[in-house]
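Readers of this paper often ask what the protein records in our data store actually look like. This encoding replaces a full spatial description with a residue-level series of whole-number codes. For reference, a complete record is included directly beneath this paragraph.
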Amino acid sequence: MRPSSMAAAADSRSLAARRHRHGRAIAFCSRRRVATFALLAASATALLAVFSSSEPLLPPPPSVLVRLQQIQPTTHSSTPPPGPPSPTPPSPLDSASAGLIPNRADAKHRPLRGHEVAYWRMAPEEALRRVRKELDDAPAVSDDPELYSLLFRNVSIFKRSYELMERILKVYIYEDGRRPIFHTPELQGIYASEGWFMKLLEENRGFVTKDPSKAHLFYLPYSIRKLKLALYVPNSHNMRPLSLFLRDYVNDIAAKYPFWNRTRGRDHFLVACHDWGPYTTILHEELCKNTIKALCNADASEGIFIRGKDVSLPETTIKVPKRPLKYVGDGRPISQRSILAFYAGNMHGRVRPILNKHWGNDKDEDMKIYRRLPNRVSRTMSYVEHMRASKFCICPMGFEVNSPRIVEAIHAECVPVIIADNFVLPFEEVLDWSSFSVVVAEKDIPNLKNILLGISQRKYIRMHNCVRRLKKHFLWHAKPLKYDIFHMILHSIWFSRLNQIQQYQE
């Protein structure tokens, strides 16, 4: 090929390449323009919809703002502009000024919807006052698949209160206190409730805050069981060293931090399951009278547990800490419950000897009341199997009003029969215990069988069904589940604080 022909061919290929690059640039610019017009049209439509409605004005979503900020005028130059690109200036609609709500985990933003209240913007006391008013207008709940309405005094108020607790509650846990009395949960035995609550709360990233200015509640993280082991002198019958220790601890945190003195301890709480829990608080007046005490020994007759302020803590027995549900099995249907009533255990306290006197020692074949389960009986049917084969499980008080048998009966889906005058039942502020239990006055023990036989078959079927539905609210899980016993205890403490807010407003 001649040189002139080769040059002409090269010029032709160069022209074609330039036309191709120019066509791609035009197409790219057209796509940018279409995207820009689409975003502007969407924004305009949203603004028109807002101005034509009665809802309060909300800013466009942050994703739209960022996209608009990224769109720059397109140049047709093939060479990039000199120097690094200038940073995008912060939008005045970002962050808090954009009306955004953080979620529980890490304050990621989402737009406010409708008439949602930005509780996170409020001071803790202001937020609680707002929540208390909102509960008065709680939306009606008619058929919730997670909540069986017959179990509750008012399922609508409970559901709304629980939702708001999950959404806004923040708890500050004091780091002060030496181990093992503090921050060392005991997870096994009949006093395990206080330990499991401590463990699960301290592990929780949603409810716990490191910023005390955001806290609605303050937790005193000690174990009354560990306190007894550390300070009590065996056989001394002297609890004063334990009470002095707690008094000095509270005085120390009141002097070190401003939080206690702001409310005189009304927004602080403790959780104690040992029988001595109430008595160790009496040497500090504000601790005893103002602090929310979650106690297994919830005796309203002694003047320490204050009904309506303090919380009745369920006493639960945990035998295998790594598997808290190991001995919780399925209950039997009513057709397989041939025993009318069952109890086996020690005969201490004021109630159990009377129970044994009237119904023990095989006095009645329908009433299986034993001092201890005899070997001749246990060889054929264990303690747990007796509960699962009984219609009613007798739960008499021991030295104090509380008993782990109430929760054991619920786990066995056996209707609990509670004999303990002045005992404030767990979660009584939200649960209707008459729907799934029988409360018998101590003076009526001689008439116990007639009381139980007086419950019609139709009513018993309803009560047994309620116990089955109730069971999930009394289960511990290594990772807490919605509406389980951890959340029910925390809700009781939260609900008590809300009631205090109302009380001190009136």
User: Anything to note?
Assistant: Confidence is low (pLDDT under 50) at residues 46-114. DSSP finds 16 helices and twelve strands in the chain. The longest strand covers residues 390-396. Residues 3-51 form the longest helix (49 residues).
